[in-house]
Amino acid sequence: MKVQTLQIRHGLPFLLLITKIMSRNPFFFVEAFRRRRRSARRYTDRPPRRRNGQWSGGQHGPRRAWRGGAAWAVRRNGRLPGRGFPSRALNGRGGARRRAAMAFPVLWVVALLTPAVAALTELGGCGPCDAARCPALPPRGCPLGRVRDACGCCWQCGRGEGEACGGAGVGGGRCAAGLECVKSRKRRKAKGGPGPAAASGSVAPVGVCVCKSRYPVCGSDGLTYGSGCQLRAASLRAQSRGEPAISQRSKGACEQGPSIVTPPKDIWNVTGAQIYLSCEVIGIPTPVLIWNKIIQGQYGIQRMELLPGDRENLAIQTRGGPEKHEVTGWVLISPLSKEDAGEYECHASNAKGEATASAKIHVVETLHEIALTKVEQHFLPSDGPTV
Q1: Which of 106, 174, 198, 359 would be a feasible disulfide site paired with 264, CB 3.0-4.6 Å?
Q2: Which GO terms are recorded in the biological process aspect for this UniProt protein (predicted)?
């Protein structure tokens, strides 16, 4: 039977202090009693002496201590004035040594027995393993696989990411493979008295299951999963449907061709205005974004003019973001002229493919024509805007 990790909650600082002292000097307490005994005898058993016309304590007479600067006191009824212990208790020959010899093994016995007592109190109800009393698993099986309980006796369904876990005894939830139980920061107090878990004697969950590998991975199905745990869960679901298992192809997101996140939009404006077209694309690896102007040639043949070219009133700007593997580009035109009218294409490409999106710039003489043009476009068939 697997024994869970134990925590010694009571008396741990005291035991650590005693262990540290004993490791440095096993006879620390014996020497402490001896020092105390010698200190008491120094001030009580040896009266001051007169040497060379002076008292041993200096030139201040017998009321000063002969050493240390403390007042010398006379015994009265076997006790020292101002002290709460009889002088005979300290001055008896062998008394301090015997008390230290008795205290030394007692402290070691306490230090050895305290962890064992704490272990018995922390086991949380793990008795002999009786497989007949284990609860039955769901008929359809466990979505994330089965794991042993906290006592290592019964099988139970592994808990998924974000679910409660922890607790001692057979009632404690265990995380599925690839997950670990982390102590929850939010501790909700039960209202209205103890809950059913406390009434039954089991320990309530103390944490939540989180994935050990918290980075995206690429599956063999070509999809990107947020973590290895999500990939494993998808693989188990696929196997339950009779489909092949999904394995991890590589760390990080799967490579994919570029796609248009935000395409450019048609613009109507007057000459001399300042306008811009914007386009946002995403792909893995990060795509390269360029702008082209579509020029209609003879016989309906189109050709692409790479921007900015030699135009002085046109500028191209590109930057990464706002998300990872995304690129945003702009075409800035100022001032707008009639020669700038036409169709502009946003073109993105990487090793996995290409993607394009286009929009038109309409140059009008007055602002009144903008409203008329939009109304005409709304009622015309969807062949594209016309001016």
Answers
A1: 359
A2: cell adhesion; regulation of cell growth; regulation of signal transduction
Q: Which residue has the higher pLDDT, 18 or 62?
A: 18
Condensed to tens digits (0 to 9), the pLDDT of residues 271-292 reads 999 999 999 999 999 999 999 9
Instruction: Report the SS3 class of residue 292.
Output: strand
* Tokens at 203, concatenated: 């320990």
The 10 Å Cβ neighbour count of residue 169 is 18
Give the separation between CA 147 and CA 160, rounded to whole angstroms.
12
- For each of the domains in the chain, give its residue range(s) and CATH number, in order of start: 12-47+73-121 (no CATH), 217-251 (no CATH), 257-379 (2.60.40.10)
Burial class (CB in 10 A: 0-12, 13-18, 19+), 338: exposed
Tens of pLDDT, residues 283-331: 999 999 999 999 987 777 788 899 998 889 999 999 998 888 999 999 9
Tell me if the bond preceding 143 is cis, omega within 30° of 0.
no
- DSSP, collapsed to helix, strand or coil, labels residue 160 as coil
Helix crossing, 95-122 with 28-44: angle to 10°?
140
The yes-or-no verdict on residue 42 having pLDDT over 80 is: no
Higher pLDDT, 241 or 171: 241
- Name beta bridge partners: 181: 209
Q: What is the pTM of this model?
A: 0.50
For residues 143 and 237, the answer to whether their CB atoms sit within 8 Å is yes
| Pair of tokens at residue 79 | 């006790």
Beta-sheet strand order (sheet of 288-296): 267-270, 353-364, 342-350, 288-296, 302-306
